[in-house]
Design a protein that fits this description.
The protein is an alpha+beta fold. It folds into two domains: about 120 residues, Aminotransferase class 4, branched-chain amino acid transferase, N-terminal domain (D-amino Acid Aminotransferase, Chain A, domain 1, 2-Layer Sandwich), CATH 3.30.470; about 150 residues, D-amino Acid Aminotransferase, Chain A, domain 2. The protein contains seven helices and 14 strands. Helix 6 crosses helix 7. The longest helix has 15 residues.
Amino acid sequence: MIYFNGEFMEEELCRISPFERGFLFADGVYEVIRNNGKKFIEFDAHINRLKNGLESLQINFNETDKLLEICNELIEKNNLNNSESIVYIQISRGISYPRNHLFPVSNTPVTILVSISKFTPDKNFHDTGVKIILLEDTRWSRCNLKTTMLLPNVLARQKAFEQNAEEAVLVRNGLITEGTHTSFCGIKNEYLVIPPLSNFILPGITRKVVNKICDALEIPFLERNINEDELKSFDELMLLSTKMDITPVIKVGDSLINGGFPGEDTIRIQKAYLEYIYD
């Protein structure tokens, strides 16, 4: 069961117009929110980021206060009580015909889709760590908005897969930005170092939680630019995301990090994060 434009329905009954702007132009925003079987994790933070994206794209949708009720009902309708799950929320500008780059008239209804699926985190990665590759960041200049315009991310993630890597971390003008679907950071000289937020970096929800965890663990949280060439000098590296939790990076291309093993501080942060998730 999904929620589509005001109705709960079987997903195979959902029909989207070929003139829907999310389909034609990727003219929309989305969020992915995790439920641990008892509650949603950082639901309000996700919705606030969604609202910021809607406002920035000038998409008129003022019913975000109803989304929690919709998500909870989808859990019930899909029999996912007491199971981990992932909710996907997408809001796009709606239908306009004929196809036109200009916004449709102001009273055009938006298109809203909410779906849910059972989720099983890959905890093997927590123990073993993963390989990443570095690729040029070819995305647009508003990466701080979580829009559905993800083709560069898709192509980079596919290239990582083809090179037996779990993620592609992106580089712009020699500086690390983020992964295709993750935040990226590392430990150097006992500091957690992470690229500063900018229009090229999504304000990650997991990143925000890790900032608080670092305060509790007395690990200094340092926002500064990370040069691509200095990665080999980091003591530890890690990926942060709603689906991947805190995942150690043990290999960048052909270069091992921390001898190919998850680092001590990464494991500490990971443990504290999982305790937060399942509290």
